[in-house]
Design a protein that fits this description.
This protein has ten helices and eight strands. By secondary structure, it is an alpha+beta fold. The chain has a domain of 56 residues. An eight-stranded mixed beta sheet has the order 5-4-3-2-1-8-6-7.
Length: 285
C-alpha cells in the first residue's frame, strides 16, 4: 500500500497539469479577441453622363484579414488579387492552398491497349442496345423530366404556402401571446449584444457619389442625413448631382471576443421561453 501512494501522487499531479493546460487553453480561446480589418475601394474619379457598370466592376477592389493570438492564426481574402480565402497557422497554410493538378497515369499502357482491342469486339454487338437506350435519353425526354421536377417542386412550395396561410390565425395568436413578447424581448436583447460585440470599433466611408439625377442623389444624401447620429465622424460623402460617379473608399477594423459569441448562443439556446415559441411554430408548420 505504501508503494502505491507515490504512484498515485504522480498520476494526480499529471492529471492536475493536464487539467490546468486545458483550462488555460480554454481561457485563451474564449478571452483572446480575434482582430479583423477590411477595406474596399471603388475608383471612379471622373464624373460621366452614362452609367458604366463594367467600369465600376473593373475598378472595385478590397480585402478582409483577421489575426488571433498575436498572429499565431491569421488569414484573409483579397479581391481581385487573391480571391481564395486562406487561413494560416504560423507559416503553414491550412485552407486556400493551390491544389496541384492531377498527374496522368502512365502505367499499364500495354494492358489498356489490349483491353481496348477486346472491348471493340463487344462494342459492335452492343450498338443496337445502345441505340434503344439513347432513344430514352433524348433531349425531349430530358426536358420533360426537368419540367416534371420543376412542377413537383413548385407544387411542394405551393402546398407549404397554402398550409401557412391556413394556419394564419394560429401564428397570429402566437405572436400576440405574452410568451412570444417575452421571448422576442430576450432574443432581441441578445442579438443587440452580439451586434455590438461584432461591430467594428473604427470605420470610415469617404468619397463622392452621384446617381446621375439630382433627385436620386438627394435621396441618397437624405438617407445619410437621417443616420447622422450614427455616422457622425465616420461618413464623409460629397454629392455629385448632375453626373454618375462612384468614387468611394471604406475601411473598418475591430475585434471579436469569442466568449461573448458563445454566451449569446448559449443564452438563446437554453432559454425556456424561446424554446417554447420555437416548438409552437414547428407544431403549426
Amino acid at each position: 500500500m505504501i508503494a502505491v501512494l507515490p504512484v498515485l501522487k504522480i498520476i494526480g499531479s499529471v492529471l492536475l497539469w493536464v487539467l490546468a493546460i486545458v483550462v488555460a487553453l480554454l481561457l485563451i480561446v474564449l478571452f483572446v479577441p480575434v482582430c479583423y480589418r477590411c477595406a474596399g475601394v471603388s475608383e471612379d474619379p471622373e464624373p460621366h453622363e452614362d452609367p458604366d457598370l463594367d467600369k465600376v466592376k473593373e475598378n472595385l477592389s478590397g480585402y478582409f484579414s483577421f489575426s488571433w493570438l498575436f498572429g499565431f492564426v491569421r488569414g484573409g481574402i483579397s479581391y481581385p488579387d487573391d480571391p481564395a480565402f486562406k487561413v494560416k497557422i504560423l507559416w503553414f497554410t491550412v485552407t486556400g492552398r493551390n491544389k496541384p493538378g492531377k498527374k496522368k497515369k502512365t502505367k499499364n499502357k500495354n494492358v489498356r491497349r489490349t483491353s481496348s482491342k477486346k472491348s471493340t469486339e463487344t462494342e459492335n454487338g452492343a450498338d443496337a442496345e445502345n441505340k434503344s437506350e439513347t432513344s430514352d435519353t433524348s433531349p425531349e425526354s430530358e426536358h420533360k423530366s426537368l419540367f416534371g421536377n420543376i412542377i413537383s417542386k413548385l407544387q411542394c412550395i405551393y402546398d407549404k404556402i397554402k398550409k401557412v396561410f391556413a394556419n394564419t390565425g394560429y401564428y397570429v395568436g402566437i405572436i400576440q401571446s405574452d410568451e412570444f413578447k417575452s421571448a422576442f424581448a430576450k432574443a432581441g436583447k441578445q442579438i443587440v449584444r452580439l451586434i455590438r460585440a461584432v461591430a467594428p470599433r473604427k470605420w470610415s466611408v469617404n468619397g463622392t457619389v452621384g446617381a446621375g439625377d439630382p433627385e436620386k442623389t438627394g435621396k441618397i444624401m437624405g438617407i445619410t442625413g437621417m443616420a447622422y447620429p450614427l455616422v457622425l465622424n465616420h461618413v464623409n460623402i460629397r454629392p455629385e448631382f448632375m453626373n454618375y460617379q462612384m468614387d468611394i473608399k471604406a475601411a473598418a477594423k475591430g475585434r471579436i471576443m469569442i466568449f461573448t459569441v458563445v454566451a449569446v448562443a448559449m443564452t438563446i439556446y437554453f432559454d425556456k421561453d424561446i424554446k417554447k415559441i420555437i416548438r409552437m411554430f414547428k407544431k403549426g408548420a
